[in-house]
Amino acid sequence: MLTFTIPRRSQQQIRKTSAVPQLGVRFCKTEKAVEQAVEDARTTKGAAVKTRRVTVFIYELGCGGGGALTVERALAKVPGVVQVYVNPATETAYVEYDPAVVGANRLVAAVERVGFRAGEPIAR
C-alpha cells in the first residue's frame, strides 16, 4: 500500500483515479505536498493516466460559497474527475479529468443537474 499526504477533500478525488490503488491517507495543509501526491498517484506502477484540464464558466453562481461547494461536490462525483476547484468570485470551475473515463459534456451535465447553467468547457 502506498501512503501520500493530501488534504481531506482531495482523498475522494484521488481514489476515483482509475490507475490509483487503495491509498492510506495522512492529512496535510501544504499545496506542494498535494501536487506531489497527485502526480505520484498518476504514475503508480508505471500506469500514467493522461488527463485533461478544462475551465468551465458557471453562470449566476454568485459570490456566496454555498453554490460553489454544491457544484464542486457534483463535479467531484463524476467518474474520471481527478481534481476540481470552483472559484465563486469568478464563477469558474477548474477541472482535471481522465478523458478515457469521462467526456467534457458530462461535466456540463453535472453542473446543470445541480441547478446552474454552465458554459462550454475550454481547454487550459
TrEMBL record:
<feature type="domain" description="HMA">
    <location>
        <begin position="52"/>
        <end position="119"/>
    </location>
</feature>
<dbReference type="GO" id="GO:0046872">
    <property type="term" value="F:metal ion binding"/>
</dbReference>
<dbReference type="InterPro" id="IPR036163">
    <property type="entry name" value="HMA_dom_sf"/>
</dbReference>
<protein>
    <recommendedName>
        <fullName>HMA domain-containing protein</fullName>
    </recommendedName>
</protein>
<dbReference type="Pfam" id="PF00403">
    <property type="entry name" value="HMA"/>
</dbReference>
<dbReference type="InterPro" id="IPR006121">
    <property type="entry name" value="HMA_dom"/>
</dbReference>
